[in-house]
Amino acid sequence: MAARVKRRSYDNSARTEASRVRHARVLASARALFLARGYVRTTMAAVASEAEVSLDTVYALVGRKPDLFRLLIESAISGRDAAVPAEDRDYVQRIRAQPTAEGKLRVYADALPEIMARLAPLVAVVQNAASAEPELASLWHDIAERRAVRDQVVHHVRPRRHAHGD
User: Fold this and answer.
1) Distance of CA 100 to CAs 78, 91, 105, 115, 156, Å?
2) From 69, 132, 157, 164, which residue has the greatest number of CB atoms within 10 Å?
3) Span 79-96, pLDDT tens digits
């Protein structure tokens, strides 16, 4: 009769948490360096050094430099250490839950100051580097398109003054 072998379950929660912490350190370090030095003068090696991880770890966690910067932009918008699809963002879910246009706009207006406080400094970095870095030019274009969409929404919900006789 074969002996019964007791299987052990593998718990990788400590590894997952350590990776999450490294990822957060990389993002925080990259943000600080990009804001202090600008895009061009910030190297991936400097990000790794500041985050106290290896350069290979930085690449494994966030990809290349343009990918890292795009992730910082998406993180600034979502308020998390990851890109979050628009429909899954907390403030978007709160907007959807509002039954009236006024309520939806109020939620959006309340969310914007926090988002813009995180995003605006990074937008300035990408705007300054877009002309010199082709990969950032694409990111700058994406940001400008999002702004155009937001401006259209504001235009359509802003009360209009009717011309005489309307």
Assistant:
1) 23, 15, 9, 22, 15
2) 69
3) 888 888 888 888 888 988
